[in-house]
Design goal:
The protein is mainly α. The chain contains 14 helices and no strands.
Length: 223
């Protein structure tokens, strides 16, 4: 992208119209990270929450050495729980293993469920087996959204010794939990996983059935 176009984006990020600033952020998708990040930083303290939220998300996609410390600081100190949740999610997209400890702290210490949910999802994205105990805590939390995140994430980190734990949710009344379970089991090629997937493939909810059949195909099985 030319210097002129970058200057145009920079100018629009300073517009008094928040829609202009959002569109300017969106246009950074085609800009290399080294040029995009300095521009994103201009609106990290924007007075309009959707602009800040989009900027935080963008830092998870545009990967430079600057992004990690900025996102960790936002996760740990921002007064807005939505921004903390966005930062947790962006750290998952950033896929930097250094974020592991910060995400674990956020899960255990933040009082907002949305932040804890985003932290659990991102721990799955990191693919680090060390997250197993945190995710089991989420699984046993009694909070449906955290259970959904934990079931998915345990599949992503391929915690095979936790299959029994997630199988306890095969008859959950929440179809989203059953769907997450069907998706997660596609990461475990075991007799119990395949048996559970065949059971879920007969679920009353279409999206659970689709997820179960996809996982069975992934494992070279049929319903």
């Amino acid at each position: 992208m030319s210097t002129t176009n970058l200057q145009d984006i920079s100018n629009r990020l300073e517009s008094t119209n928040s829609k202009d600033r959002l569109l300017a952020l969106a246009s950074l998708r085609e800009v290399d990270a080294e040029y995009a990040v300095p521009l994103i930083k201009k609106v990290l303290d924007d007075e309009v929450l959707p602009v800040r939220s989009m900027a935080v998300f963008a830092l998870g996609v545009k990967k430079t050495e600057e992004c990690y410390p900025i996102l960790v600081k936002l996760l740990e100190t921002d007064p807005d729980y939505g921004i903390r949740a966005d930062a947790a999610g962006a750290l998952g997209y950033l896929n930097d293993i250094r974020a592991f400890d910060a995400l674990v702290r956020a899960f255990y210490e933040d009082t907002e469920w949305l932040v804890r949910f985003s932290a659990a999802v991102s721990l799955g994205n990191l693919g680090d087996i060390r997250a197993k105990q945190v995710l089991l805590a989420a699984l046993n939390s009694g909070e449906t959204v955290l259970q959904q995140a934990a079931i998915s994430a345990l599949g992503e980190i391929q915690a095979e010794d936790c299959v029994e734990d997630i199988l306890n949710f095969a008859q959950s009344e929440d179809w989203l939990i059953r769907q997450r379970l069907a998706e997660s089991l596609g990461n475990f090629n075991t007799e119990k996983s395949i048996s559970a997937l065949k059971y879920l493939a007969k679920d009353a909810h279409e999206q659970v059935v689709e997820a179960a059949n996809y996982s069975l195909q992934k494992l070279g099985q049929s319903s």
